[in-house]
Amino acid sequence: MMSFFRSQFANVVEWEEFRDDMIFWKWSNREIKKGSRLIIQPGQDAIFINNGKIEGIFQEEGDYNIESQIIPFLSTLKGFKFGFNSGMRVEVLFVNTKEFTVKWGTKNPINIPTPQLPGGMPVRANGTFNFKVNDYIALIDKIAGVKGRYLVEDVKIRITSILDQLLMKWISKEGKDMFNLQANAFEIAQGIKTDLDMQIIDSGMTITGFNIMSFNYPKEIQDMITKTASHGMIGDLQKYQQVSMTDGIASGKVKGGGTAADMAGMMMGMGMAGQMMKNMNQAQQEQVPNQSGAPSSSGGKIPNFCPNCGEKTSGGNFCSNCGQKLV
Fold first, then answer.
1. In the 8-state DSSP scheme, what is residue 109?
2. Which range, of 167-171, 177-181, 206-210, averages the lowest pLDDT?
3. C-alpha to C-alpha distance for 103 and 126, rounded to whole angstroms
4. Nearest C-alpha neighbor of 211 from the set 187, 181, 183, 180
5. Fewer CB near the last or first residue (10 Å), C or N of the chain?
6. What is the residue extent of each domain of the chain?
7. Each residue's pLDDT tens digit, 75-105
8. What CATH class does 100-217 carry?
9. Is 138 helix (H, G, I), strand (E, B) or coil?
10. What is the pTM for the complete model shown?
């Protein structure tokens, strides 16, 4: 007698094993009794399935009486009547509707063909991708029809299994600069996103975003890239210093004393300024005779400007500003 009454107890249909990394979970192999309830939490959709076909999709969160609020909206079971000791056998698929974000990284270096390295450029990369469920019919047909649950890790394994091939394809495309791949990261990522979407769209999911955070080279190659960049920066700095000194001389701001010291600090040492003064003196000596006419011990002339600090000379053998020997 107790067994008879126990079979009449109503049950609650809800996502019982919910996890943030679970894409779907199936309530199955149980009979829905008269008076049973359906509970839908925020971020969930509940799909009633009968014989592999969708009977109804319920997307609003809430607590529903299945007999009065759910069955009337089912496609072929809308007229179902609960018996005194019988219920309704259907499967209810709960789907997580949020967008998932997954971190990825290449496990091994990818050898990208490049003329500079016959064996290929070994490159690692890492980033994130985003996906969500967007087609319940395809999801049930390809995955949920045979699985009781599906995790983010299952999708990650599928994606990363083909990611190396796609990275090689889009990095090699149109001769990208192998030593500055980060500059083309967005374009490479967009190409990979499109290809990945085509890989999983038939399973009812879509790739909503794909990002490459960084490319990583072997230490020897990274050191070479850093050194090359440093040399380029030094060249630009020298040009900047030359322009700054020239502007200072033309405007009369380069004087002796404290101002000269300030300029020296700004240009990281007076060595460069001295070299520029020597070049100016040589040019002037070729064009205009020395005004003082005083001979040097080496047979040369006293320069018009001190080669050390840039101060105009007064005809003596030593600079009146910094004491530099002039002849």
1. -
2. 177-181
3. 8
4. 187
5. N
6. 10-96, 100-217
7. 999 989 988 778 899 999 999 999 999 999 9
8. alpha beta
9. helix
10. 0.65
